[in-house]
Specification:
The complex is a heterodimer of chains A (about 220) and B (about 300).
Chain A lengths: L1 E5 L7 H18 L9 H4 L9 E6 L5 E9 L5 H5 L15 E9 L9 H21 L4 E7 H9 L5 E9 L2 E9 L2 H8 L10 E2 L3 H6 L10
Parallel strand pairs in A: 1-8, 4-5
Antiparallel strand pairs in A: 1-2, 2-3, 3-4, 5-7, 6-7
Helix pairs in contact in A: 4-6
Chain B lengths: L2 H13 L3 H15 L1 E11 L7 E6 L2 H9 L9 H4 L6 E2 L8 H12 L6 E7 L5 E8 L2 H6 L1 H24 L10 H11 L4 H7 L4 H14 L5 H10 L23 H8 L9 H5 L22
Antiparallel strand pairs in B: 1-2, 1-5, 3-4, 4-5
Helix pairs in contact in B: 2-7, 8-10, 8-11, 9-10, 10-11
The chains are: A alpha+beta (about 220), B alpha+beta (about 300).
């Protein structure tokens, strides 16, 4: 199940927020692309999290976060345009109100995925379908994915890594991949094959009607 | 912040030289789209050496009067709910149980703006936040063409915000310089090439072609890609003066058309133009004369 958590509503959903950051922390430690001891909460919560992005969370049946993704409009400050600007200042900014950036894709057990292939397949499928739906609702044309090597590997192995937009970018020894997805039926088809059943629409946690329909309103306190 | 401060700022903006243009744009937009009301509010706008404006806003005079009388600063119904997020918010999904929302939406009805609308949060590269809200009188027509109207609103709100930014920065430049790839896409679009043909020419997909056309459109603050092409031609960013080209006229080997595309669709689309060559085409050599070569410009791969 996919839940949308607007950044400005994080305080209302402390458990989900904490689990999302915990997932990032686990993935960063598993990648071992940073010195031991350097990976802590402060390194996985970055400046872009302070910009009230839209978080897309994948929840399992027990309502635990098993995947997370962050969305930011490219008209504002983004990872691709600002975090990597120092490493390649010649790269032009990608700015459009109809293009958003998806970053910090994190899945549970990103590195040790053997035992959880089906869960990861399903989570990736849910993410893709939900991303397409969110983008269509906002009348977007494209989504630019900015993924670390672990996430990129998972997407590539499933044939849904998107179209390569730039060569991999290296920052602090870690490689980042930039992928392009066009919003529309093709994007839906790319991801929906991982879903065994019809995709359920995402639950917008900030939308009272959405949570009411799904019976989530009573759960708000414990999310 | 006291409302006097805010309306002092609004009045200062209203007296500025470039404000009539913004007002006219807003009015024209409102009339053209049949919208009951358009409001724009921005925080933390960059103003160059003059320091940052804490807030600027444009909204209907009747609403401003009401706000002054009630000594409040909520200049749009979704100011509180909408400014923090990034996704457009339809007023239909607001929590009507919230007394603040109920009160503010009641005001829009009282002022005959209607209770149907959408607010589009805007983010700027200098960290500014803005909110562009519109009211729609006819909810039926709103529902029927929602997606296309939403896209136009997204584009229009971004263009409006860009104009405000430029007015505040007192700069006349039209955003960043177009990249070589964007110029190449615009040139090919100007030559009436399809997205597939443009993608093939650039060694990319049609989706990528649409992506670069969209970034070019946004960089030029154009409402549509066709308008962006017009602007690029008018400003000399791309040249299409075929009459001046006396040599290297197109022939069957070097023109990409639908027939050659059909042939190529069965093959791997490796051949491509050099985007830099396409973007900065020297006079005397028409675009059609550029030969398709296997060489890929690695600078932008």
């Amino acid at each position: 199940m996919i839940a949308l958590l607007p950044g400005e509503s994080r305080a209302l959903f402390p458990r989900l927020t904490d689990e999302m950051y915990g997932l990032r922390l686990s993935a960063a430690r598993a990648r071992l692309d940073r010195p031991l001891g350097a990976v802590n909460r402060l390194t996985v919560v970055d400046y872009f999290d302070s910009l009230d992005p839209l978080y897309v969370l994948a929840l399992n049946d027990a309502e635990r976060v098993v995947g997370a993704l962050r969305l930011l409009p490219t008209t504002g400050v983004t990872m691709l345009n600002d975090a990597f600007a120092a490493s390649s200042p010649q790269r032009p900014r990608i700015e459009s109100p109809l293009i958003w950036e998806a970053s910090r894709l994190t899945l549970e057990a990103t590195e040790n995925s053997q035992a959880q292939e089906k869960i990861i397949d399903r989570t990736i499928g849910e993410f893709g379908v939900a991303l397409n739906e969110i983008a269509q609702a906002a009348a977007l044309t494209h989504v630019v994915g900015v993924f670390d090597s672990g996430a990129h590997r998972l997407l590539s192995s499933r044939g849904c890594a998107g179209e390569t937009l730039t060569p991999p970018i290296s920052l602090d020894g870690a490689q980042t991949f930039v992928a392009l997805y066009e919003v529309g039926p093709a994007m839906d088809a790319l991801f929906i094959r991982f879903l065994g059943q019809a995709a359920r629409p995402p639950v917008n946690l900030a939308n009272p009607e959405s949570t009411r329909v799904r019976g989530w309103r009573a759960l708000k306190g414990r999310l | 912040m006291y409302c006097e401060d805010i309306f002092d700022l609004i009045d200062r903006l209203a007296r500025a030289d470039k404000r009539p243009g913004l007002d006219r744009f807003l009015d024209e937009f409102q009339r053209a789209k049949g919208l009951a009301h358009v409001a724009y509010v921005a925080f933390n706008l960059p103003t160059g050496a003059a320091g940052r404006l804490p807030l600027s806003a444009v909204c209907a005079p009747s609403w401003r009067k009401l706000l002054v009388q009630s000594r409040r600063v909520d200049v749009a119904p979704l100011l509180r709910a909408g400014l923090g997020g990034i996704a457009p918010k339809s007023w239909g999904v607001l929590d009507r149980d919230d007394p603040v929302v109920r009160k503010l939406l009641g005001e829009t009805l009282e002022l005959e703006f209607g209770g149907n609308g959408v607010s589009i949060p805007l983010r700027g590269r200098d960290g500014e936040y803005a909110l562009f809200s519109v009211c729609v009188e006819d909810a039926g027509s709103w529902g029927m063409a929602r997606h296309s109207l939403m896209r136009r609103l997204m584009v229009a709100s971004a263009i409006f915000h860009a104009k405000v930014r430029r007015a505040c920065l007192a700069r006349e430049s039209r955003g960043d310089r177009l990249t070589d790839r964007e110029l190449a896409c615009l040139r090919l679009r100007a030559l009436r090439k399809t997205d597939d043909e443009i993608g093939l020419a650039l060694g990319a997909s049609s989706s990528a072609a649409r992506f670069w056309l969209e970034t070019a459109r946004a960089r030029l603050d154009a409402a549509t890609v066709d308008k962006a092409v017009e602007i690029a031609v008018a400003t000399g960013s791309i040249r299409l003066d075929h009459a001046a080209f006396g040599r290297n006229r197109p022939n069957a080997d070097n023109v990409i058309d639908s027939k050659s595309l059909e042939r190529a669709l069965g093959e791997k689309p490796v051949p491509t133009f050099s985007q830099r060559a396409l973007g900065a085409e020297p006079p005397g050599r028409p675009l059609e004369s550029i030969r398709v070569t296997p060489a890929i410009d690695r600078r932008e791969q």
